[in-house]
Amino acid sequence: MAYFAPASGMNPDTQALYAANRLTVTRQLRYSAKHGNTLDVTLALNGVPVATLELKNPMTAQNWRHAVTQYKNDRDPSDLIFQFKKRTLVHFAVDTDEVYMTTRLSGKSTRFLPFNRGCGGGAGNPENPGGYKTAYLWEAVLERHSFLDILARFIHLQIEEKKLAGKRIKKETMIFPRYHQLDCVRKLVADARERGTGTNYLIQHSAGSGKSNSIAWLAHRLASLYTENDEKVFDSIIVITDRVVLDQQLQNTIYQFEHKQGVVQKIDINSTQLAEALGSGVPIVITTLQKFPFVTEKMGELPMRRYAVVVDEAHSSQGGETATELKGVLAGAAIKEEVRAKAEAEGLPDYEEEILKTMAKRGHQPNISFFAFTATPKYKTLEVFGTPGADGKPNPFHLYSMRQAIDEGFILDVLQNYTTYKTYYRLIKSIEDDPQVDKRKAARALARFMSLHPHNIAQKTEVMVEHFRHFTMHKIGGKAKAMVVTSSRLHAVRYKQAFDKYTKDKGYTGIKTLVAFSGTVIDPDAAGVEYTESGMNVDAMGKHIKEKELPERFGTEEYQVLLVAEKYQTGFDQPLLHTMYVDKRLSGIQAVQTLSRLNRTHPGKEDTFVLDFVNEPDEILKAFQPYYEQTLIGERAEPQQLYELQAKLDGHQVYYKAEVEEFCKVFYKPKPNQTTADHARMNACIDPAVGRYNDLDEDVREEFRKTLVAYRNLYSFMSQVIPFQDTDLEKLYSYIRFLLTKLPRGDRGPVYNFNDDVALKYYRLQKIGEGSIVMEPGARYEVSGPTSVGTGVARGDEIELSKLIDILNERFGTDFRPGDQLFFESIREDAVSDSNLRQAALANTMENFGYVFRKALEGLFIDRMDQNEEITAKFMNEDQFRDAVSKHLLKEVYEKIREEAEVANDQ
């Protein structure tokens, strides 16, 4: 029927056949003998109609919506020209400002999708100085070569099989690329053709962007990409997903694009399978990153080849030793050749040559191009994969923003309906003794005691169940589901028990729960009873639901509520999920990913709802705002920071340079020369440092350990973006990685359990706010990286238990106006979230930090003046009050920032 453009120009005959294709444009085509209806524009390929357009002119009071109505009401899908899979493949509703399209006419249920370029970070099209805003449609999309390319390499029939009411149902969808997908793939392919290998690309595409299709199109295009001189650009395409279990949707999509045997291979067994696929040169390989560290053990050295690595969810796949191993496997031959020449020229011993190889693996590889997709790029993701802009800072190569996806209706705005609750309570000491306790640790223990208290669990369960009954369960035609996000596995267990008990006691039907958590949980208040996920999830037949069955079972009409603890908060796609109940502190990317479980669209799903027991709306806004439009990078890391950390570590005299050197001689010994005695020799190099570490004072010991972690993390990141030539940095990095594993963790202090020492005297759960959290278009919110080298440790203050309870009661009790307390909490959280204050806190002592903090605090109060003018005026006008507030907040903010940094570094 047609001859499409060959991938290369090596066969003149195929070029001639391609040129012989006839594309025609017919105006006002009368397409059926049954009636006199005509189509504004019909496009045909070699006499076969493949696309239709209805054109409208806003100047005559008609627009694309009228065209859509015309397609739905006046175009009979049973007419041959519109029949699915038989004639036309796509239909466009066009006016001078916007374009919409569909691939299947189904009467009034036809769904048209935006086919616009996007404007200013949102929906629509930018102004066109040369004509209509929609001129790109005929100038760039429907142009002869472009349209033939779409027909040949983009449009395809997607087949999905779903289980509904126990029956397997096959759904067929004709996929036509959305504008941003077409634009992205074509720009990436054109740049790769021009530059060849060795370039990194960051694609910031929001949820709802159709990422699986974009990755599939890109992988197949790159696999058949040739230069202008008819030389293949890439020998193999490696698609990396960050999930241990391969993304089923992604692999199925890539498979459906190419049916030739041997073109695509998924690696779902082990690293031997991956080694065989790489060795045989399979064009497209789909695998997880975790299999690469073991490949070198399964195979010899790969020959010199050129690779395109397409990374799914790049924010979690760009760092660490596993990513380094990937580069080492794919670039091993080139690295070996380059390093050997340098080692021979400089007369380096074998182990120094191995060090140079390892350093080379971390950095840029001229035979590998990375194409990294993510909706939420971290600082490191931007630095490693971003394209330098005019200011030198890295930017995404291509952007499809969260804002545009929401504006175009591909995802829902999960912040549109956001309700917050606050817990007020009063505790009393129930024992005669008044022991001294570590203030911070005991405060956390008291907060945990409060959150796990049966009354707290019961009250929040009642709120959630009643809300679900009255507001959620009738949504989406009665199919709506909810997720409860808990702060720990024990919380998940107790909430599951509370939900089931409450609904049973009330006699409620249609609210059945599933719980998701890893491993085994022992409830200390239940006589050591052990709980597992499958043990708690029992269906109506009395059978336990296996972990891998849970997502599909939750999608059935049998279950409505899923309670989770660190599971299903990322990557979980359930369009019927409408409401989320949050009883966990969320921040940053974790907040975005967790709440975004609600954003999937579904017929009849018009909105979402969040009920939050823990987080402040401002905290959530600050988490989402950097990813609403293009993510910007803040202050950048400098190499000098690494040398400052190195000097600080050397100054402690815990390890000696000779020990590091001797360790590296063994660690970097060529593998064929390694013996079983080498492990003992490495330990012998590390153990003396462990002994010296144990002789340090507790505070110095903890500071040294944190500086080790800071050096390890910073070098692991910076070595990917800066080609260090200093082998001493690499040697220290390798030594530190193993030293950290042998250092004893310091006394973490007392572990408190106040179940028998404290009692709950008063409790009140109060709704304090409802409405929308509105993201701001055009706002500049930056993501920050590792820019400070301060690693001091805060000492734990001791306090009587009774005084600590008094402080907490003053803070959370009803003697204070809730609004006043919330105002101070908001100021504190503003300060903790401020990037400049975070940098200052991490780089300075509390005393030095105070100079910066006091200056910034006045601005924070002024920013929130309209929320509490009385307290703001008191702060501005009364020195004694201002000093007391500043002193109190200074300590809280300083310790909070450093505590969060410690947790992040330990992960």
From TrEMBL:
GO terms for biological process: DNA restriction-modification system. Residues 192-395 form the Helicase ATP-binding domain. Keywords: ATP-binding, Helicase, Hydrolase, Nucleotide-binding. One of its GO terms (molecular function) is ATP binding. It comes from the Bacteria. Pfam families: HSDR_N, SWI2_SNF2, T1R_D3-like. The keyword ATP-binding applies. InterPro entries: Helicase_ATP-bd (IPR014001), HsdR_RecA-like_helicase_dom_2 (IPR055180), P-loop_NTPase (IPR027417), Restrct_endonuc_type1_HsdR_N (IPR007409), SWI2_SNF2 (IPR040980). This is Helicase, type I site-specific restriction-modification system restriction subunit. The lineage of its organism: Bacteria, Pseudomonadati, Thermodesulfobacteriota, Desulfobacteria, Desulfatiglandales.
